[in-house]
Amino acid sequence: MSLRLYNSLSRQKEPLVTAEPNIVKMYCCGVTVYDYCHLGHARSYIVWDVVRRYLMWRGYKVRYVQNFTDIDDKILRRAREEHSTMEAVSEKYIQAYFEDMARLNILPADEYPRATHTLDGIKRLIHELEQQGMAYAAAGDVYYSVRKFTDYGKLSGRKLEEMQAGASGRVESSDPEASKKQDPFDFALWKAAKPDEPAWESDWGKGRPGWHIECSAMVRDRFGDSIDIHTGGADLVFPHHENEIAQSEAVTGKPLSRYWMHNGMVNVDGEKMSKSLGNFTTIRQLLDNPLPILNDTTFDPMALRLFVLQAQYRKPLDFTDEAIQAAQHSWVTIREGLLFGWNHGPQLNWPDLPPDLPKAPAESEAIDQFRRAMDDDFNTPEGLAVLFELAKTLKRNGNILKHGGQTDTPSENLYQTWLCLRELAGVLGLVAPPEIPSVQPQTGPSAEEIEALITRRQSARESKDFATADQIRDELKAQGIQLIDQPGGVTSWIRE
RNA sequence: GGCGGCAUAGCCAAGUGGUAAGGCAGGGGCCUGCAAAGCCUUUAUCCCCAGUUCGAAUCUGGGUGCCGCCUCCA
């Protein structure tokens, strides 16, 4: 059974057939760098990271390119506000982007082209469009003649005539470029320089590129005429991706991308999270601040990842307190499972664990089920269900071991389960750093002190002095020591 | 107004013709001096109506509600 994915272009799931066997050329529309990334960005890049990791796990060689838009009105406005420059603003937020993505364990792209580094390619493409009669210059601007591209609207499924009815009110008057356009639907490929704004020399005079053209130019520069998968947020379908298609395909005569994939939006109270609505939470806001709903602890980046992957990527995802809480708790379960080997391997006489763990047996049922789920348009909620089954088993056995019992599950089975969980979690980018208890910095009372207190409590309990017994338990609890009274009068303890 | 999508337990979410995965939260039980932790166990007939079918959450038609895009947007 092959991998199938939903292609926005055909509006149906299709088997993945790449141009070259086992090679995937993938381009993802990145961010405009004028602010910190919010949860909408987090979702988008987590989703595409998982797609990429899964394809790699399935044996594809993936080349992944993602751009930074570093020329833009909003960046300029931000620069003015901060008495800074466009370069400084974009540099700052590009660095912030890298920091945020690293925390979310998103693999770095193979390349990060920037608009400011792609001027040659952009100008070349505009020239070619001009030569083909698809574009025209107008007072220092250059526009794309939308009506000349007969396939216009094929991605978003709209017809120019139908759009006109609803859009006419806005397109006409409010747009300052409207007077230069031959048609309201035409869009800018190149914009004439305004005073005091960064500008580049060109045959049309000093100016800067429009937004859509950079992606067309970058894809062409890095990959050639066609790629396999083009991704981005659902809000980019129109006009951004539609325009990319118009620009690229008019010149090359070939499909810009075989498959188009779009992720659903993150919602707040049922409405899209967006800059313009002002209802956004940045990634760092969420991860850096202790949250009352989490007992004043911070939200784990991996829990954010889990939160995102618990929804199918094309559906809207509601961001709520309850969702945060659920994700955090869920993550603890997965993490317990991931740490099982490090915590209990020695106890089970496992061999020393090499840094590169062996692969789980490919024919295992869990792997099979996971693959079936993910092969069906990256069904991560179903894939996660597999992880939970594995993690629960490990967690349960870990608890039994921790509480002094003896598991009746063969050590070898637990080892395979653990390898399997780690491998599949890795495909989803979910990792828990090896936390070997003995290596952790020990704070609070020493083991001897604790044992002494337990002995004192024990005698208090035997003489029915429960007040003293409970007091000792409470004091240790306050120092992060959890006492566990086991059947048979034995009391063990763990550091929390 | 046009185009597209969604509607499954308290919340999130799989399932696309054969009598409802998983997570979170909750209930019950075991254990305990009490507790914590743990273990076991439990919780839905799938928005409404009408069809097709031996059989539908799953197909068809009609409603209702919500969301996205049509302007910068992941």
Give the helices and strands, then pairings.
Elements: E1 4-7, E2 12-15, E3 23-28, H1 39-57, E4 61-66, H2 73-81, H3 86-103, H4 119-131, E5 135-138, E6 141-144, H5 160-173, E7 187-192, E8 207-209, H6 211-223, E9 227-233, H7 237-252, E10 257-263, E11 266-268, E12 271-272, H8 283-288, H9 301-309, E13 317-318, H10 321-344, H11 365-375, H12 380-402, H13 411-427, H14 447-462, H15 466-478, E14 481-485, E15 491-495
Parallel strand pairs: 3-4, 3-9, 9-10, 11-13
Antiparallel strand pairs: 1-2, 5-6, 6-7, 7-8, 11-12, 14-15
The structure holds one RNA strand of 74 nucleotides.
Family: Belongs to the class-I aminoacyl-tRNA synthetase family.
Enzyme class: ligase
Organism: Lyngbya confervoides BDU141951
Write up what this structure looks like.
45% of the residues lie in helices and 14% in strands. With 496 residues, it is of the alpha/beta class. The longest helix is centred in the last third of the chain and has 24 residues, at 321-344. A hairpin with a 2-residue loop joins strand 11 and strand 12 (271-272). Helix 6 (211-223) crosses helix 7 (237-252) and helix 10 (321-344) crosses helix 12 (380-402). The protein has helices spanning 39-57, 73-81, 86-103, 119-131, 160-173, 211-223, 237-252, 283-288, 301-309, 321-344, 365-375, 380-402, 411-427, 447-462, 466-478; strands at 4-7, 12-15, 23-28, 61-66, 135-138, 141-144, 187-192, 207-209, 227-233, 257-263, 266-268, 271-272, 317-318, 481-485, 491-495. It has 15 helices and 15 strands. The protein binds one RNA strand of 74 nucleotides through helix 1, helix 5, strand 9, helix 7 and strand 12. Its cofactor is Zn(2+). It catalyses: tRNA(Cys) + L-cysteine + ATP = L-cysteinyl-tRNA(Cys) + AMP + diphosphate. A motif ('HIGH' region) lies at residues 31-41.
